[in-house]
Structures are given as structure tokens and as C-alpha cells.
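Hi again,

Forgot to attach this to my earlier email, sorry! This is the prediction with zinc ion bound. I've pasted everything inline since the attachment limit keeps bouncing my files.
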Amino acid sequence: MPEFDLAIRGGTVVTASDTVRADVGVRGGRIVAVAEGIADAARVIDASGLLVLPGGIDSHVHIAQDPGPGIVMADDFASATQAAAAGGNTCVMPFAVQPRGGSLRGAVDAYRAKAEGQCHVDVAIHMIISDPSEAVLGQELPALVADGYTSFKVFMTYDDLVLNDRQLLDVFHVARREGARVMVHAEGYDAIRYLSDRLERAGETRPYGHALSRPEVVEREAAHRAISHAELIDLPIVIVHVSGREATEQIAWAQARGLKIRAETCPQYLTLTAEHMKGLGLDDPMAGAKYVCSPPPRDAESQEAVWSGIRRGIFDVVSSDHSPFRYDDPQGKLNPRGKTSFRWIPNGIPGIETRLPVFFSEGVSKGRISLNQFAALTATNHAKMYGLYPRKGSIAPGFDADLTLWDPNKRETIRQEILHHGSDYTPWEGFDVTGWPVMTIAGGQVIAEDSRVLSEPGRGRVLDRAVDPAERRGG
Ligand code: URP
Ligand code: ZN
Ligand code: ZN
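C-alpha cells for the complex follow:
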């Protein structure tokens, strides 16, 4: 019997702290050795010239959510997780959404049932709380946190999700007591409605109106309000999908005061701008809808501010905020109401498969960040922030054998035809990258190679997590 099931030989192992030439030995789906000269294995993979990275963890993706009447999300669990695997990811974290007036437990159970048996990569489920009733705050949420659903997102905008300030404070209070991790979508609801009404009255209904209805000040104000609420409750929160200079400044200010504010950004805020929402060609005035997401991408100056925040350690994670809709589809971006006003264009863009190559190319290949920062921002910090560490997120004995073999020199042009998601477009069509995932290994199994997915749906598990007892504050 060989000592190892799998040996990955001759690569450069990259973690959040180290870059070393070493082999990786795998047994029973776990890493059991990181050392030189590992050879006695049932299967040997030659990783010469390649980086061995922790498998990507994407802690903010939307899969198979119900966006409301007449609109359908473009990915189910099978298609989203196969795209994730091809893009170098081994774990993703989507959201079970509580419907207003409905049960949070019911939403979580139904969502988990949808995921079971369908996933190519492991999945850990966050919750979205849209209706913090007495039953939710008193019973459902504490019980769900105890059952391993240890994180949730709250929204400061969207008609069917927005929480008012009192509700945010009540939810934060319960999160602190139970030790749950809270993600905050920081955009101000009333300001967006006011601006949207005025834009529509002035006849500005194009997709670009979306950017005008959600300027940076709207995100800055909400970020500051969320930070203040978190300070009152003494709760660490994560401000997600931070889009530009103004919100980054608020977070930097809060962190400098010693507040426990964490932050996430996404490749769209580093590479796209509001100009994309003006459309790519005069022949298709709706093309800008392909880029409609919230918050909207900003401008070159904001991109630089976010890069600077990444380099200064203000950001903990880079996620995709994958929220896929088809473009040329009456149930997607071109739904009949969406053609009448930007207000009805489903928000979100696909990005689960392109997050790592776009961020690697713009970050590492262009010399903006180190390899170790890349590992931290795309895997390790996600695992640490959301209760998956030390099972996932690094390369050391005891961790799941979730690894991405990465060719740092491979050049590729991103095109819809090479991707595996359910959308009919990518916002990064024609985008040239240097650096590409050539093999994704999950639990010691090769699940994708050279953009071909080799696993079957159902290989990935739905994971339970546990809160760190130090985060539970009682009271
Ligand atoms: O536009 C976006 N980001 N849609 C997904 C939902 C959210 O707010 O993250
Ligand atoms: Zn959001
Ligand atoms: Zn999102």
C-alpha cells in the first residue's frame, strides 16, 4: 500500500504567510504532509512550474435564489459549482433568503435541500434576514446559529429586504449574543428611491441610470451608519462589496479607531466602471444592463482607492458577489419591466469563475499584491472569517486537501464560450489575463483540469460550522 493517496510534486506552495518549494502528500481527503521528496503515492501529479494555492473560497455568491416574479437566476447549484471548480474554487458560500413574513428556518431547510446532491465543490450556507420578527430573533436565529449556520447578511436597501435602523440594531444585538458573523449591504434605501424617482421623472431610464441612482455618497452614508450601529453594539461586522473610495475611507477611519470593521471587495470594483453601464455599442442600448450590479462599479480613481485599501490591509476578502442573470432573456436582464427603466433590471453579475484569474492577473501579475496576499484574500481570510478554519483555507497537515494548481504565466482571454456558468454572457468578455487555474483538487480529488470539469454533482458537501466561543458575548 502506498503511503499517500496523492502526491503533488515539484510545485511552489503558497499560503497566506509562506512561499516554499515543497511536495504535498494527501491521504483520506486531507493534507498529511508538506515536505520535500514525497513520492510513495497512488497518484503523483507533477506541479513543476506551477503554484500550489489553497483552493479558492468564495464567501459571497448568490445561487438559485428567487429574485421575484418573472425573474429567474441563471445558476442552480450544479452549474454554479461547476463554474466555481473550473475557476479554481473548492468552496463557495451562498445565501438562504428569509421571505418577508416567512420562517428563517424554513428558508434554510429548503435551500439546503436544493443544494444537497447537486454540488461539485463544498458549500457553506449563509442566511439573509429580511424580517427580524420576535420569533426569528428569539428562537429561529439562535437555534440556527447553534446548528451551524453561523453567518448572515442584512440589507440597508432593496424593497423586499431592507431593514430599518432599529431592526439593524436588534439583529446586531442577537448576533453579538450568539457569536454570529454579520455581513452588511451598505447602501441607503431612501436616498436611492429619491434619486431613482427623480431620474425617471427626468426621463433617465437607461441602464446607466442605475449608476446615477446609487452614487458613492449613498454607499458612504450607509457604511458610516452601519459602522456606528456596530460600535454601539460592540459587534464586529463585515461591510461587503465595497465599491469605491468613499466607503473605503469610512472603513479605514473605523479601523483606525479600533472598531472591528471588516471589509470585502470584488473584481468588478477593481476592473469595471460606471461607463460600462452606458453600453458597449450604439446598436444595443440595453447592453449596459450586463453590468448592472449594486453597488455599481465606479471610476478609475475609486479602483485605485480600493487597490490601495487592499495593499494597506483594509480589506480582508475579495469575493465575486456572483449574482447571475441571463442577458438576452425576458426572465433576466431584458425582462419587460427592465426595458422600461433601470429600476427593474435584476441586480448582479456573474463572476464565480472569473474572480481568481481577474484578481490574480490585475493583482499579482501586475505587481500590486504579493502571492501571499492573494492566498489570504481569496481563501485563508474567508475561512477564518466564516468559521471554516483550520479545516479549510491553507496548506498544512490536517487541512482538507483543497488545492488549486496555478500557472502564473498562462495567458488567456476571458470569453463566454470557455465558461461554465448559466449566464449567457460575462462582463469580462475579451479581458486578457496572465495566470490561470490549470487544476482544481477538492478533498484530494481532481475536480477540474484545463477548464474541463471532471467531478459529478453531489461530490461537494454542505458544511456545518461552529461559532468561535470567544465571539459569543451573552446578554
Ligand atoms: O447587485 C448585486 N450585488 N446583487 C446581488 C445581491 C447583493 O446585494 O449582493
Ligand atoms: Zn449585497
Ligand atoms: Zn451579494
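The CA atoms of residues 274 and 298 lie 5 Å apart. The mean pLDDT is 97.

That should be everything now.

G.
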